[in-house]
Amino acid sequence: MNNELAEQGNIQSLLSKIGEGLDQFLKFDHPDAHLTKDQWMATLNIPLPTQGLGIEAVTDELVTTIIPNGSPVANPGFSSFITTGSTTASTLATTAASIASPQRYMGTAFNFIEELSLDWMASLFNLGSMKGVYSSGGSVANLIALGGARQHAFEQVGIDPSAFGIDRPCRIYASSECHHTIQRSAGVLGLGRNSVKLIDCDSQGRMKVTALQSALDEDLKAGILPMAIVANAGTTNTGAIDPLAELGQIAQQHNIWFHVDGAYGLPGILDKRITHLYEGLALADSVIVDPHKWLGASVGVAATFVKDRDYLLRAFTQEPADYLEGSASQADESPATHIEHSLDDFGIPYFDFGVELSAPCRGIVVWAMIREIGVEGLTSRVVRHNDMATFITKFATNHPNLEVLSTSHLSICCFRYHHESITDLDKFNQRLHRRLVRENVYMPSTTKVNGMLTLRPCYIGARHNQTQVDGLLAAVLRIGEGLLAESI
Q1: What are the pLDDT digits (tens) for 47-104?
Q2: What is 375-487's CATH topology?
Q3: 3-state DSSP assignment of residue 370
Q4: In Å, how far are 417, 439, 453, 476 from 482, measured between CA atoms?
Q5: What is the dihedral of CA 133, 137, 142, 145, to 10 degrees?
Q6: CA 92 from centre of chain
Q7: Where are the beta strands (DSSP E) in 329-393?
Q8: Range list for CATH 3.40.640.10 in the chain
Q9: What CATH class is the domain 91-369?
């Protein structure tokens, strides 16, 4: 016990060692972890320790063995999927909260900042008076929003679904480009994954308004309860933004909950050139965004915003528990006169607005990032990333051996290598992609656009800049030429 207590007072020097290890990692001059797998696995793959080595030895092992063999996600050349390494501000704030406020509750500065940062984001993204709640990612954020939608829909027919369950089939309308967490949310909420009706999209990946209206009319005639219309503010595949205003108007006409999934693309509203594409947000009942995507937070920070947070309260409120009720101020006491300690007040009860009771302080991360660079800094980042995707689009359009399959107003571009002698473009570009990634310098993902395989770089990282775009294009052309030569 004495050794354990002594170790707790040595945080500064230990964090300094970790910081040095991370600084070295961020130079990205190390090989991919897979190439040294035998070495680090031989060191780490040991039986359960009976005796501990102490915190100094653990820190050394982190710095020498684990950090150098981490993920390529933080590499500026990584443009796969929609994830990135955290900014320094995010890392520092996460570390501070893990020690100074392990939970987001009680009357502390951390609980206050939880709400303040949500309000800042609502203002940042033109969400008006919407109130929010943090969660671990877009999966849970969508689940929370659709939990509110379920509550709203069934209350209209006199049922409290969170208390008594559902008694009839209902429908969620989402585009065929929606994120698959929508179907999973429907399954978790007891609606069934098949309650999600996928609506056709146009050639740019945007939901067809006429197709939605037809599906809605058909279900109303069949007596199916419409529960939610889900629109995308930046799809995962191509960055498409649905016609939010038109979809929101249909939702209003039928009193259907209108949800906007902006997990990736909501920050795009900061780019004044495309702000008009987000005008329908004012009609939304709920909106989600993942600060751990474009804003640069460490993974595990998402937010759900709703016009009326009472729907979330009724959908997710917990039943009373003896160990909680009465642990803070008593109901018959006046909080204004009897709160004398932070433990006298749970603070804002986020545990009743979502599915998590225990939860870290995520707001402090968002607060730190916004406080560091402000609206101007975040706007500059979004504009830079959008310009990077636009540059690829223009370059590929004008190059005889490149072909653009999908354009976007956001930071995704879908293009591929093309040559008249290639008989199977999908297979060729798949081979090109694997060689590209294994060079461990430029690492986009792939997707399919209108059935055709395409390279899909997505730029959201704080460390992304034009250098990665120029390098990617040069590498694609070099590898493509090499593959062509091999086939001759």
Answers
A1: 999 999 999 999 999 999 999 999 999 999 999 989 999 999 999 999 999 999 989 9
A2: Aspartate Aminotransferase, domain 1 (3.90.1150)
A3: helix
A4: 12, 14, 20, 10
A5: 0
A6: 20
A7: none
A8: 91-369
A9: alpha beta
Q: Are 227 and 170 in contact (CB under 8 A)?
A: yes
What is the rounded distance in angstroms from the CA atom of residue 190 to the CA atom of residue 35? Answer: 44
Q: Can you tell me the distance from the alpha carbon of 52 to that of 177, in angstroms, rounded to the nearest whole number?
A: 50
Q: Which three-class secondary structure state does DSSP give residue 187?
A: helix
317-366 pLDDT, tens digit each? 987 777 776 677 654 555 555 778 888 888 888 999 999 989 999 999 99
* Tokens coding 264: 């990736």
- Answer yes or no: are the C-beta atoms of 2 and 54 closer than 8 Å: no
Locate 105 and state its tokens. 């509750």
Q: Which residue bears the tokens 């990634």?
A: 437
Which structure tokens are listed for 217?
Answer: 């009319």
Residue 223: both structure tokens together: 């007596």
Please list the residue range(s) of the chain that carry CATH number 3.90.1150.170: 375-487
How far is the C-alpha of 269 from the C-alpha of 410, rounded, in Å?
A: 10
Q: Are strands 78-79 and 302-306 parallel, antiparallel or unpaired?
A: unpaired
Structure tokens, 215: 């599906």
Edge-to-edge strands of the sheet including 257-261? Answer: 131-135, 302-306, 286-289, 257-261, 225-232, 170-175, 196-199
* Helix, strand counts (H, E) of the chain: 16, 12
355, burial (CB in 10 Å: exposed 0-12, middle 13-18, buried 19+): middle
